[in-house]
Fold:
Amino acid sequence: MKAPSFQRAVRANINIRLALCGPTGSGKTFSALAIADVLAEGHPIAVIDTERSSADRYADRFAFDACPLVAYSPEAYIAAIEAAESSHYRVLVIDSLSHAWDGAEGLLERVDLIAKRSQKSSFNAWADATPLQRRLVDTILGYPWHVIITMRSKMEYVQEKDERGKTTIRKIGLAPVQRGGIEYEFDLVGELNSEHDLTFTKSRADPLADRVFTKPGKRLGQEILAWARGPASQNAVQKPLAAPAQTAVTLPIAAIPDDADSETIASMLRNGLASCNTDGDFGSWRRIAQPLKPRLEGEHYETLLAAYKERRTEAGL
Structure:
């Protein structure tokens, strides 16, 4: 057995592990997508969606590929994460991880099922269920690029007096709906409230610790990306985002009539792919293609997605 040894630690670029928690309506999905859009730096974004396609409401503002889940077993999450990895998505958004805990086929339901089938107590059933939770968390942490997860918060309503002395009811978020201690696994944990203010309750990034961001979005994404890259980037974070690279894509979107069928749209988008050679090209192509996705039939969409991946491989990306 080789003797243990120590080496000088080096600050390398970091793949972000970010968790956003909050009650319903606090802006978790929007903030996750806005931050992901910056972290992706022109690369594709994958969204594992358990929130009944809520992310699709923002498809006109952000380009991403969604994988809806209808059953929330740890195995289903793991399979989706592994599929995203095999497709080389540089940012993975899991919206949300709470369903893996208390959703249909989630871990709490799994514990009850184990207890009933084996006539074990719920306490003893956790011995079988805990390894599944650990495997899910390890799969998330092992993802080779950036990961953003959202979690619902347990909600409570409190009575408060406003400046006029009138009693108001306010919704507040408590602990995230997930196994206790899940927040320890992430670099950054932010809590959103019903006023869309985000406070970092855990941060390995000193510049972000204990700060509050109102309606967090791309600006926060810039700061997170700067920290991930290291000190040199943090010094430049005040600079505005660089304009997107000009694309060589030539796609006559304006010429597509409203009654164009799925096959015609898919053909024109495939033609546009032929001009894509850089990350900027592919990013521009996705921004053009995303609004047309609802008009594509399933078969045409799958064929187009395969052509997109093939063209990226041909371009060496």
Notes: The CA atoms of residues 199 and 212 lie 5 Å apart.
